[in-house]
Every structure is written in C-alpha cells, then in structure tokens.
C-alpha cells in the first residue's frame, strides 16, 4: 500500500520510527493474521448498540474480542446486547467520559490491534479487515481511521489537520456562518480517495496497533468528551508515527444522536475540551494573548450555541 502523503497538514515530515509496532506473522491460508479487540463506550444506548454489534459481524473475517464500557445506568440493556453478541462488559455505570471508558475497556489489552468505536456507527462489510490490512502494509501507521459517512451518504470530514491558534480561531468563529472560509476548509482537509496521512482522526472509529496504544498510554482522560481524539492524533505524530485515513474502509456514523438527547451538556463539554486543548497545545508565554482571545471567542460561541439549543 502506497501512502501518498507523509506530511500531516500543517506539520513537518514525520520520520520512520525504529520501534514501529510489531506486525503479527502471517497465518495459514484462509485465516487473517493478527488478533483484534473492539471496544465501545455505551452511555444508556438504545438499539444502536445492537446494530453496531450486528454490523461488526460482517466487518471482519477475524473473531474479535469485544469489550463494552458501561458508562450509564441501563445495565440490563447493555448486558443483553453483550450476551447476544459474545461481548464482555466492564464498568459499574460510573460515567468516565469517552476516553476514560475506552481506556478501561482496553486496560488488559493482549491482542495485536485495538479498535475504539462509537456504538452509533454501522460497519460496512469488510471495513475492519481493510483497516487492519492498511496498518499491516505501513509500518509507520500509529492510528488509522475509515471514511465516515453520514446517514444520508455524504462524507463526514473525519481526517483533519491539527488546529493551530489562528486557524482554530478562524474555524471556531466563522465555521457556522461561512462554512467555506479558508480556515475551515484547511481544517477539514481534502476528501481523497487514496490512503493518506492527516493530523488527527475522528474518535468515532479508530484502529491502533496495540504497541502504539500502550506506548501512548491511551486517551488523555482530562478530556471528558471531545478533543481526546485530537490530542491522541497529536501525540501519535510526536511519537513519529502516522495518522492514516483509509477511505476504502467505510463506516456510517449516526452522528448527533447523543447531541439530540443532551444538547446543552454536549455543547458545554465540547467547548470546555476545546479550551483545554488550546491551552495545552500552545503553552508558550508569547502565545498567551492569542490563547486568551481564542478561549474568549470559544466561550462566546458556547453561550450562543446553548441559547440556540434552548430555543430548539
């Protein structure tokens, strides 16, 4: 597999690592090589969890280990789905956030590959195997993601550039009122049809070599929700690996189900994580004025979005 872009947008060229995650040896004919664990985080899910698990059956010829982190209170629903599809449930209903739940479900990881995915995605047939094969073909791959489709078939921009202070501010302020502004266009990246490197990948569906996940320590649990994937992508790049988007692997994401149930809470969590990322990724003293301005702009946008959500 040729990776046509080895430079993440806005970043320097990423070097080949000498301690790239070891790829499992080839297996006998007809048996896909490499073992995989699929983890998902359930917060009082509806039928989406069953649909997720059902679609997973056709996504891989492997027999994945499936672990569900139960972050909610509807334990019976989660346990029924787990029993039906041969999954294991961890957690006691404590809401650890997305990253915390995923870390818990991956804590005893022994498989070669780890998938972290939202329970509201639908796997297309063969999509997980395509992701794994792309990872096996590129030793520098530290994180891989599929092409995400919205339920209406349009492409969701799931492989993006890492946000800069100026670019992130421009996207935050202008993204809703002028979607085609240059800051948002650069942030969303291009919709390429070949495997390519990006700055970060949407946490709705990620594949990592186990060695990369363990070296990075999983998600930063300081991000309760949102931006844990941006932070992970940044750390993948700093470690010398690539974030690769594999458009041949396709999943459908019913994005927005959680937002619709708890819009104000989700809006506030999103903006809180955005401010945390801005502060953590741009800590220099000389960046303080712009950092403060961006944080203030994010707070103002948060209040506008909350008022709009309350109006319905």
TrEMBL record:
InterPro entries referenced in this protein's UniProt entry, alphabetically: Nucleotide-diphossugar_trans
Coiled-coil annotated residue ranges, if any: none
UniProt signal peptide: none
Region called Disordered, residue ranges: 1-34
Keywords: Transferase
Keyword Amino-acid biosynthesis: no
SUPFAM superfamilies membership: Nucleotide-diphospho-sugar transferases
Protein name: N-acetylglucosaminyl-diphospho-decaprenol L-rhamnosyltransferase
Organism per entry: Actinomyces ruminicola
């Amino acid at each position: 597999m040729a990776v046509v872009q080895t430079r993440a947008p806005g970043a320097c060229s990423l070097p080949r690592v000498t301690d790239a995650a070891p790829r499992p040896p080839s297996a006998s004919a007809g048996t896909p090589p490499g073992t995989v664990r699929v983890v998902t985080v359930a917060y009082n899910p509806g039928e989406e969890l069953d649909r997720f698990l059902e679609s997973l059956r056709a996504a891989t010829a492997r027999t994945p280990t499936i672990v569900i982190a139960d972050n909610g209170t509807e334990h019976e629903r989660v346990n029924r789905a787990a029993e039906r599809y041969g999954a294991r449930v961890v957690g006691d209903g404590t809401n650890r956030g997305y990253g915390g739940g995923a870390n818990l479900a991956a804590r005893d990881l022994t498989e070669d590959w780890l998938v972290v995915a939202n329970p509201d995605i639908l796997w297309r047939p063969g999509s997980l195997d395509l992701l794994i094969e792309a990872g096996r073909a590129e030793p520098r791959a530290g994180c891989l993601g599929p092409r995400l489709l919205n339920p209406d078939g349009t492409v969701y921009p799931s492989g993006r550039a890492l946000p800069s202070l100026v670019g992130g501010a421009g996207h935050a302020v202008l993204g809703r009122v002028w979607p085609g502004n240059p800051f948002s266009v650069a942030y969303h990246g291009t919709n390429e049809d070949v495997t390519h490197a990006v700055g970060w990948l949407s946490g709705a569906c990620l594949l990592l070599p186990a060695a990369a996940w363990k070296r990075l320590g999983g998600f930063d649990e300081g991000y309760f929700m949102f931006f844990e994937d941006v932070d992970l992508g940044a750390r993948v790049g700093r470690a010398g690996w690539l974030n690769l988007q594999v458009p041949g692997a396709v999943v459908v994401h019913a994005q927005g189900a959680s937002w619709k149930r708890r819009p104000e809470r989700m809006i506030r969590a999103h903006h809180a994580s955005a401010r945390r990322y801005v502060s953590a990724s741009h800590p220099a003293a000389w960046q303080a004025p712009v950092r403060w301005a961006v944080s203030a702009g994010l707070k103002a946008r948060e209040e506008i979005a909350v008022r709009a959500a309350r109006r319905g």
